[in-house]
Amino acid sequence: MINWCCKDGALADIEVEYEQELGKLYHLRYPLEQGGFVLVATTRPETLFGDVALMVNPEDGRYKHLIGQRAILPLKGRVIPIIADDYVDPHFGSGCVKVTPAHDPNDYEVGQRHQLKPLVVFDEKGVFNEHAGEFASLDRLQARPLVVKALQKQGFVEKIKEHTHQVGKCYRCNNPIEPYISKQWFLKKEVAQGSIEKVKQGLSTFYPPHWRNNYHAWMENLRDWCISRQLWWGHRIPIFTCAQGHQFASVENPTACPTCHNTQLSQDSDVLDTWFSSALWAFSTLGWGQESAPEFGAQDLQDFYPNSVLVTGFDILFFWVARMLLAGESLLGKLPFKHIYLHALVRDEHGNKMSKSKGNVIDPLEIIESEGSDSLRFALAMLCVQGRDLRLSKDSITQARHFTHKLYHASLFLAKNLSEVGGDLTHTPKHPTTLLGRYAQSRLNATTKEVRTALEQYRFNDVATLLYRFLWGEFCDWFVEFSKGYKQSGDVVLVFGELVSILKQGLQLLHPLMPYSTEYLYQTLSGTSLEQSPSIMLSAYPKDTQQDLELEACFDAIKEAIIALRRIKILLNTPITQAFVQSKIPLEPQALHLIAKLSKIASVQMVDQKPAQSLSDVGELVSVHVDLSGIDVSALTKRLQAQLDKLAKEKAKLNLDNPHFLAKAPKELLESLQARLATITHKEAEIQKELRLLQA
Known about the structure:
Blueprint: E1 2-5, E2 9-11, E3 16-31, E4 37-42, E5 53-56, E6 70-72, E7 79-84, E8 96-99, H1 105-113, H2 140-153, E9 157-170, E10 178-180, E11 186-187, H3 193-200, E12 205-207, H4 210-219, E13 225-226, E14 228-229, E15 239-242, E16 247-249, E17 265-267, E18 271-272, H5 274-278, H6 281-284, H7 300-304, E19 307-313, H8 317-332, E20 337-343, E21 346-347, H9 364-371, H10 373-383, E22 390-391, H11 394-420, H12 435-456, H13 460-483, H14 492-510, H15 515-525, H16 549-572, E23 578-583, H17 591-599, E24 603-606, E25 614-618, E26 622-627, H18 633-653, H19 659-664, H20 667-695
Parallel strand pairs: 5-7, 12-20, 19-20, 21-22, 23-24
Antiparallel strand pairs: 1-2, 1-10, 3-4, 3-9, 5-8, 6-7, 11-13, 14-18, 15-16, 15-17, 23-26, 25-26
Coiled coil: 633-690
Organism: Helicobacter bizzozeronii (strain CIII-1)
Domain Aminoacyl-tRNA synthetase class Ia: 2-246, 260-393
């Protein structure tokens, strides 16, 4: 017995999609041969023409006296036996069910146990045959109300109740599936045993790891796989039949039967299930079976099978991945992949499944046209947390596009400046010696170590986040800015050359997530083009080396001082010509120069204690001090307090502390007001920080 779609033919168990539907449970009166009747509950009254027995639980005291007796089939008058089987649930319906082995999988198994001959009552198109009497030639779905009407007319219906149940549907056309007796080709479930054992031994690892349990749960309940399909396309089943009825398999087109040498041969008209053909993908693409063909290298199979990793969606774990594992292991003796990474479903920004009817589909082709394929790829990677569905929004893709633009500007800035100071892009230092170069290299090493670890564990979102923070938050925001402080230095050529070399390594780290942008920028920073030199993808992926933690601490202090001085300048809203720095750690001689350059203050001096009449910003590593002579601190304090009062009034107007308003306001309005509240709260925190500076 197989799953049969009256429109598309045979289906494997996994291709049947079950939907919960509100249907009806029909309680029918089946007359007893000795008089009276028994109630039978069914959801499919139209299949009664295929009934070959009634069945009760042997322990059900209500029906023990009926076991072995006979009932009369309504509308047909055919006599059928009443049998006993543990399969019957005494608490479902009336506790007595009909047995229709040709049209129900459970009844089919019951029929096998009790030697009941199946009676097929409709054909492959779902049209009733002669066994249905006056309903012959009607479609199975159209016939149901007519059969019920006839049963009611003759008094065979006791009652009809609403009933929620699972209905199997075809995954292609959503047509209700029929359990059907048909001759098809199957792959025995025993073929999968080797792959199951090797996965248990850890020869293939799943990411996230919980999918291993899902895989085993499904594989250990595997049934024989129906692999023949009644379709116009696909790999035709290589089974031939001669005029004498002998069947045989052949890779080539045979000319005669190997058993009787008959030359009248016909090939099976069915094709293989698409997923059966797809199961061969891991090795058929490498020339398996045809290694001598010109399109394959003689070593392809040996070099690339098994492969290191398969990346695919979790929704085809059983359709494709499990079947590639069983095909590879059974035919080649090895599982095709060492690692299997299953990514989650891409949803819209609100967590809803994308659907054309909802109008929330993000068309990747449109996004690629407007934002670029790298932006889409990077956004997906950044959101791809193991075990969680992705919430994709256009804002996240735009953020990724801004990232690519930032890298373009940084690359062009470095290339232009290196050229202007007499440097050569084709010969940049591989081992930095300048203070900034050594610091940038140390931070690159730290990032490389974390990125490689995340990649090895398939934490692509962490890879994307780490590179985003390093390349934008550190390289573009700080290293490039620091380089401007070296323009009048004798090290200027070295500094720009070292930063070019470090950015190229950063692009190599980023390349798997942004292949096109990184390729272009890598070639640009190499002073060449793809036509003239090897692709970035052929270069070695960076390896981490030792960090210089003391130097990193020094630059952390420098950055802390610059941020503090910028904050004070905004607060005072007046030019500052001199500042003082106290540091808790030793600073390099160039530190004060870099602080002065990036905070745009003419003179920055190191001191041991806070100068008198100065405004101070105390940090974890450094404290900065600015002379307050000539500045009206009282007026500044009043201005900041007035800003706080204004924000407090704004916050009160939002009405977010009113429970009645919160209960009635639309969700969209509340979200907008809460976003505004977050902005106000952030501004308040900044002003309070400034007030504390003035009061220190």
